[in-house]
Q: What sequence folds into this?
């Protein structure tokens, strides 16, 4: 991967392993949540990070801003080395790079009004006088399509879709350049999901925001992201332009993921077949290619040597021995 | 046509809120034929799960009631049966699987014992015979190394494997009807595909009917023979699956399909449905979808009935505007 223009996010060889058990009970385990993940989000771009539960996509999103301290790798945002940044520098970065979480109910403070929730980050970062802070909070609330009366209310008074709007307003209030969104629409009904996606579409256009968009839903990623990275068991196994990757998946796992995603068309029922087996434990990943235990194209080399992520076509890379 | 396996007629289920009864399901009529999969699809608050609980007689004893209607199964009306009579039916002729298998499984019993227990209770076989049958069932739902895993506890199983155990328990008494309420919603897509494939296969080999309740239109397209779309407690459209997806008629069905981003094609602009589902306590007197509907007409102030479109098409619709357009065409 080449260096992208300034303003973007570059992640190189990011690794995070968790240690579990061993003190009173249980076997000592090393959970290899994320290994050697590299990706770029250029200024203004939207990159999707997809995969199933336990593939490490959320850990990547958390390790970038050191919400979970990574074990190894480099992260740079607009030229600043995030991993070596001091507390003060990190605080500044967290203003420019904001989060939206899946479940706004658990990420909003239940005992604070929406006003307190929206104004607090502005006060922490000392962004303006009291009046200016009020104004910015009001603008963020209006921008996500909630009425001004919402300011005095508490999170439990809102529906799931409205709470997600509040979560988005909280991310916006600091005027970030990039948003890391972890499954932002997964908990919502289809019609509400479409409302929130349309809102995010609009914000991206108006503010030139870049997005790292973590999701398990390929349809949502196809809609929102021009680039996609597919993860399996802690590693990126394929990356490229979303449409190309989904229309013609190179990696057999991407193919399985695509073919397992149901489409609302009874004429195209899934060719459900040969898809037994589950994702192995990240505490004990298979040798060689981690997908070889489920792969229909398995070859002898696949259990012996791990395939590197290599360019397969312009803008696309895949980690699979079929493309050696 | 022979008698359907399940026939629900004019069901109305209500909840008591602040001392008043409000209907959560209204005028619900639906039949499930032998060996047929009927999907009930709707968003949160559509009443689809309340419908399932009403059919099974599992509404909470306090604060909820079936106000009217009948649930005909095996020649009997289940509404008004005693709890003891219902308990014999549930897990026997009618089986059910739910979204979160971990909350439905007993964490202190081995998986084999739990499946065997169902067989012993409903068939009165010996413990040993029941355990042998349990093993057979776990193999049938394709749990790998089932013989070893018989003695494992639910927490040692993955989400997909737990749902397979639930399906094995549901099959234990060879039910005529399987009621599946969001059975794959908590699963990853590749595991969901496995479980859906398994259900389709077992439906054939066991000759079951399935009433499949889900919010996911993609899953509906994969599984159903017929589909009932629910909105705000009512069926708004009911049609054979191919027809519903090729030519949705109710403005809500249409909007729902346009709001879903698809993996197989570009959706440059999604068309969200503005507004929200009305709360139970403030249902509009006319068409429940009218406040959000782009086709709203003055006549929508009245409550539309669910009417069959063309004779024998099996397509019915609760919309004055579109029904008139159809009959004019």
A:
């Amino acid at each position: 991967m080449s260096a992208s223009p300034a303003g973007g996010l570059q992640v190189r060889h990011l690794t995070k392993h968790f240690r579990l058990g061993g003190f009173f009970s249980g076997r000592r385990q090393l959970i290899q949540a994320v290994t050697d993940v590299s990706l770029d989000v250029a200024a203004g771009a939207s990159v999707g990070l997809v995969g199933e539960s336990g593939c490490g996509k959320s850990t990547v999103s958390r390790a970038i801003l050191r919400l979970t301290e990574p074990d190894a790798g480099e992260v740079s945002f607009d030229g600043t080395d995030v991993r070596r940044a001091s507390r003060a520098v990190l605080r500044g970065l967290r203003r420019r790079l904001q989060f939206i979480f899946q479940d706004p109910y658990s990420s909003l403070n239940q005992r604070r009004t929406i006003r307190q929730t929206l104004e607090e980050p502005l006060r922490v970062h000392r962004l303006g006088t009291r009046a200016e802070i009020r104004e910015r909070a009001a603008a963020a609330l209006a921008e996500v399509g909630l009425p001004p009366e919402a300011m005095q209310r508490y999170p439990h008074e809102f529906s799931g879709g409205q709470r997600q709007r509040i979560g988005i307003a909280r991310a916006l209030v600091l005027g970030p350049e990039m948003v890391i969104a972890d499954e932002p629409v997964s908990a919502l009904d289809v019609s509400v999901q479409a409302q929130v996606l349309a809102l995010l579409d609009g914000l991206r256009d108006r503010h030139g925001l870049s997005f790292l968009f973590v999701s398990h839903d390929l349809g949502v990623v196809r809609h929102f992201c021009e680039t996609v990275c597919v993860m399996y068991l802690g590693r990126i196994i394929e990356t490229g332009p979303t449409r190309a990757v989904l229309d013609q998946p190179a990696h057999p796992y991407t193919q399985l993921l695509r073919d397992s995603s149901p489409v609302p068309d009874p004429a195209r029922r899934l060719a459900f077949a040969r898809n037994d087996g589950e994702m192995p434990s990240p505490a004990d990943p298979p040798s060689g290619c981690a997908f070889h235990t489920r792969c229909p194209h398995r070859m002898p080399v696949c259990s012996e040597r791990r395939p590197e992520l290599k360019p397969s076509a312009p803008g696309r890379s895949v980690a699979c021995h079929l493309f050696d | 046509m022979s008698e359907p396996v399940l026939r629900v007629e004019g069901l109305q289920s209500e909840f008591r809120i602040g001392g008043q009864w409000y209907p959560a399901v209204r005028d619900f009529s639906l039949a499930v034929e032998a060996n047929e999969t009927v999907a009930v699809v709707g968003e949160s608050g559509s009443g689809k799960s309340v419908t399932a609980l009403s059919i099974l007689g599992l509404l909470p004893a306090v604060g909820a009631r079936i106000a009217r209607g009948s649930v005909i199964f095996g020649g009997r009306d289940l509404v008004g049966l005693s709890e003891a009579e219902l308990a014999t039916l549930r897990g026997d002729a009618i089986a059910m699987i739910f979204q979160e298998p971990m909350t439905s499984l007993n964490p202190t019993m081995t998986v084999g014992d739990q499946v065997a227990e169902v067989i012993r209770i409903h068939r009165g076989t010996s413990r040993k015979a029941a355990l042998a049958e349990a093993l057979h069932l776990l193999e049938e739902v394709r749990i790998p190394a089932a013989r070893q895993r018989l003695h494992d506890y639910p927490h040692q199983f993955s989400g997909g494997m737990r749902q397979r155990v639930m399906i094995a328990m549901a099959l234990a008494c060879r039910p005529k009807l399987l009621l599946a309420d969001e059975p794959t919603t908590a699963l990853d897509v590749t595991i969901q595909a496995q479980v859906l494939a398994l259900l389709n296969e077992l439906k054939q080999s066991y000759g079951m009917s399935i009433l499949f309740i889900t919010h996911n239109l993609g899953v509906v397209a994969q599984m159903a023979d017929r589909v009932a779309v629910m909105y705000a407690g009512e069926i708004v459209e009911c049609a054979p699956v191919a027809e519903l997806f090729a030519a949705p008629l109710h403005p809500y069905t249409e909007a729902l399909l346009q709001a879903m981003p698809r993996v197989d094609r570009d959706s440059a602009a999604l068309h969200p449905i503005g507004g929200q589902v009305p709360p139970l306590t403030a249902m509009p007197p006319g068409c429940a979808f009218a406040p959000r509907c782009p086709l709203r007409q003055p006549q929508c102030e009245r409550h539309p009935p669910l009417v069959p479109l063309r004779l024998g098409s099996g397509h019915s619709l609760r919309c004055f505007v579109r029904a008139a357009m159809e009959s004019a065409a």
